[in-house]
Amino acid sequence: MSMKRMNKFIYSNIEKEIEVYGYDGVVKTHCRMCHGGCGVLVYTKNKKAVKIAGDPECPINHGTLCSKGIASLQLAYHPDRLTHPVKRIGPKASGKWKRISWDEALDIIAERILSYKEAFGAESIVMGYGTGRDNESVIYRFANLLGTPNVLTAGHFCYGPRIATSIITCGTNPIVDYENQPKCIMVWGNNLVISNPDCYKGESFSVALDKGAKLIAVDPRLTRIAARADIWLQLRPGTDAALALGMLNVIVEEALYDREFVENHTHGWEPFVKRVREYPLERIEEITWVPKEKIKEAARLFATTKPAAIQWGVAIEQQINCADNNRLLLALMGITGNIDVPGGQALFQSPKIRNAGYFGAHRMLPEKQREKRLGGDFFRLAGNFAIINPKFVWDAILTEKPYPVKMLFFISSNPVMTRANAKEVYRALEKVDFMAVSDFFFTPTAELADIVLPSATWLEMDYIGDFWKRHGYILPRRKVIEVEECRSDHRMLNDLAHRVNQGEHWWEDFEQALDWILEPMKITWADFKKMDYIRGSVQTKKYEVGGFSTPSRKFELFSTMLESWGYDPLPQYREPPESPYSTPEIHKAYPYILITGRRLPGFFHSENRQIPILRELHRDPIVEIHPETAKKEGIKEDHWVIIESARGKVRQRAKYFAGIDPRIVSAEHAWWFPEKKDPGHGWAESNINILTDNAYESCDPAMGATPVRTLLCRIYPEIQKEGRAWGNTA
Fold this sequence. Notes:
Layout: H1 3-21, E1 25-30, E2 39-45, E3 48-54, H2 67-70, H3 72-76, E4 86-88, E5 97-99, H4 102-120, E6 125-129, H5 136-146, E7 151-152, H6 160-170, E8 175-176, E9 184-188, H7 192-195, H8 202-210, E10 214-218, H9 224-228, E11 231-233, H10 240-253, H11 259-265, E12 266-267, H12 269-276, H13 281-288, H14 292-304, E13 308-312, H15 322-335, E14 345-346, H16 356-359, H17 367-370, H18 380-383, H19 390-399, E15 407-411, H20 415-418, H21 422-431, E16 434-439, E17 451-454, E18 463-465, E19 473-477, H22 489-499, H23 511-518, H24 525-528, E20 534-535, H25 543-546, E21 555-556, H26 560-564, H27 584-589, E22 592-596, H28 612-615, E23 622-625, H29 627-633, E24 640-645, E25 648-656, E26 664-667, E27 710-717
């Protein structure tokens, strides 16, 4: 059956369902349970959403939908959901709260903002968000107009590095063009069939494989993707940069590069070749544990199969080699001639709207205040994109240097669970004078707040979905339901802005902001919400006419921007700060390499562990261990074990897994237990970030990325002791 006929069949069935089941109707909108963009059909009855299905006409997901999207109704109507503002009564983490009105909550927050700004400067107030709910631009707008240069994001080690390095290399983030059928796909540090990450959904990748695309998988674990790969490169964790340099060495030495592109469109070819030759395959094999013949095979397959593309992910960014990992993968795309070509790595153009950066009003932050950004020029690449390393914030709270941070305002963020050195994060949040949080539930972070606001889910708001992404689409997110007093972060900040003297730069009603974003296209939100989507202009090899949007107008293998900031303009490999080779003494006590952050179908970082149909899929935190290692350490499958680093210990449940090197164990991140009603919800029991380090010298020198993915540990059976306190250093 053709797609057109299939859609007609589906929509005729919708009409029958409405009639048979007595639905009020169906709303076409777009999910944001994780990275967003999936078109959905939401059925309503008696003003409630009662069913969600994928929209087959959406160009992002083509009717497919993940478990998180299906579970949206259980989130929206969860009995534990926060549905009204509250303020804390008594000491932090006491679990005692009083219901208050929105007006009182916003008045309290506004009074604190204005008083701290007057007494300590706007920089003493830090805004923060996590992986976000398409609210990033509104948060930055509020912060910039307030005058604080301090916005705490995941951007130092998640997606932000991809954007930052792409901009300085080729002007924008290259996206795999699945629509035009890549003939070879290299998946590197990514598990998109599980995570459906920013700009992508696993469905398009799977379709490309079904149509015959060759597959190279780079991953320490035997994932579903690696099991299907033509070539699986099972590298030692944290050695991605070395492996990429090895592949580039093969491509250069065997002249497998695109000569025309290299000669006419790259900057720094000769010094780049010299750098690559410093990494012969014998050296790379020793570093990465990948046989050199496999590296050759993968390099040749990728370079000679056209078009080819790289599906890259966050795993390569949460390392000391963060920026160089990204730059090396960009180099692989570029010198093989796969940049901005059909089926390769497209440089898509967004529709002509006011983009996310413009809406964030970065130009409204005074230069004097910009210079006060915590960390200053310590991580120059991050600072160039208004991104700060979170440790600067914790230090400013705990030591009051270089100045005191007095207030935190976290929106859709749970840093106690998701940032490195969780004990230090907790101490900082305990100490800070005042903290407000906007979220769906009382999280371990929210439990430490003074005011907690009830945030609306994607089902409860109108917004322009995906207008910050690089895939070239914008999508109308239409409001379907309203749940008690829950309010969108956009509306909340718009209301708060009027209370802190920003009113002239905001709107009476936030729908007017949507009109303003769309105004360059001469349409309004009322017009747009009648559409399915708008796509930007699609052109290829745009660089042949205007070059790349870089200082040299070329694809920069040798970065002029990094050179101007005092960094090595050429990518290199750095050994992980904690490894068998960089810290042999620590390795004696902690003999296994621990990797963290494995993606799970139902969870989105620290979210969804209270959603019944998702938690039922995965009841407990799991650490994967090779059967040989389990036997050596006396560990029985499905039993609780202790994972310990030099910084602390946590407990997770053991699972035997032969698809991993016996020298490596793989643990899950962001685990807390909403079912535990005591304050903190067991935040320190299984939280892998108790074990991770956030020392500045361990971070990527340009981006400030914290190395949460690779460290050393020991693992052993749990011995139950009465009164045991989890998260404490041995």
